[in-house]
Amino acid sequence: AEAIYELDAEDAEESETDSTAAAGHANAIAEAATDEPAVAMQQLDRESEVITYNALISACSEGHKVENALELVVEMQQRGLSPDVITYNALISACEGHQVEKAIELFAEMQWWGLEPNAITYNALISACSKCYEVKKAMEIFAEMQQRGFPPGVITYNALISACEKGHKVE
Predict the structure, then answer these.
(1) 96 falls in which pLDDT band (50, 70, 90)?
(2) Does the pLDDT value for residue 159 go beyond 80?
(3) b/e map of 59-77 (b: 16 or more CB within 10 Å)?
(4) d(C-alpha 35, C-alpha 9), whole Å
(5) Is 108 left (phi over 0), alpha (psi -120 to 50) or beta?
(6) How big is the CA angle at 49 (ends 43 and 54), to the nearest 5 degrees?
(7) Region 1-25: what's the mean pLDDT?
(8) Alpha-carbon distance 95 to 99, whole Å?
(9) In the structure, what pLDDT confidence band is assigned to residue 85 with cuts at 50, 70 and 90?
(10) How far is CA 11 from CA 16, 17, 44, 78, 155, in A?
(11) pLDDT > 70: what percent of the chain?
């Protein structure tokens, strides 16, 4: 099924962040290519594989198929590939409405591996809490998001309003 996504200003900023990261990878590969072409090609192949796995995991996320997404991460790791922030964002999103505890566990795991959450990560986690009626946890994550310097946007506020509505806590 094909879907059309509308981007608001916050989505555009988040897309720019992902685009900036991709451009950084491309520049690093280009620099390596001038010195070691074979190494650069291997790096490019690995980057392409991670991107492909992330796309598959995101597809599982859209269908809320948490177990399938987690199986893909295990397969990814067995192939010697490391999940990145985008991988974890998709995994956390896959947990929305079903497994908030798993979303929180994944959030902690990514940090344990040294990956820094970004605004997309926080929004996905707040949304997961919202859809599981975890108002208090959503508010705690919102506070942490702000403490870590990520300004809330439309997506953040919509998830919080939804959490409060579901928890009958509209203030």
Answers:
(1) confident
(2) yes
(3) ebbeebbbeebbebbeebe
(4) 40
(5) alpha
(6) 130
(7) 42
(8) 5
(9) very high
(10) 9, 10, 27, 32, 8
(11) 71
Q: Which of 118, 139, 119, 116 has its CA nearest to residue 129?
A: 139
Q: Among 61, 58, 45, which residue's Cα sits nearest to residue 18? A: 58
What is the rounded average pLDDT of the residues 74-82? Answer: 91
**Mean pLDDT for the chain overall:** 77
Per-residue pLDDT, 43: 58
The yes-or-no verdict on residue 44 having pLDDT over 80 is: no
**Considering only CA atoms, which of 146, 91, 141 is closest in space to residue 160?**
141
CA distance linking residue 169 with residue 164, whole number of Å: 5
Task: Decide: 97 and 131 in contact? Cβ < 8 Å.
Answer: yes
3-state secondary structure the chain: CCCCCCCCHHHHHHHHHHHHHHHHHHHHHHHHHHHCHHHHHHHHHHHHHHHHHHHHHHHHHHCCCHHHHHHHHHHHHHCCCCCCHHHHHHHHHHCCCCCHHHHHHHHHHHHHCCCCCCHHHHHHHHHHHHHCCCHHHHHHHHHHHHHCCCCCCHHHHHHHHHHHHHCCCCC
C-alpha–C-alpha distance, residues 150 and 147, integer Å: 8
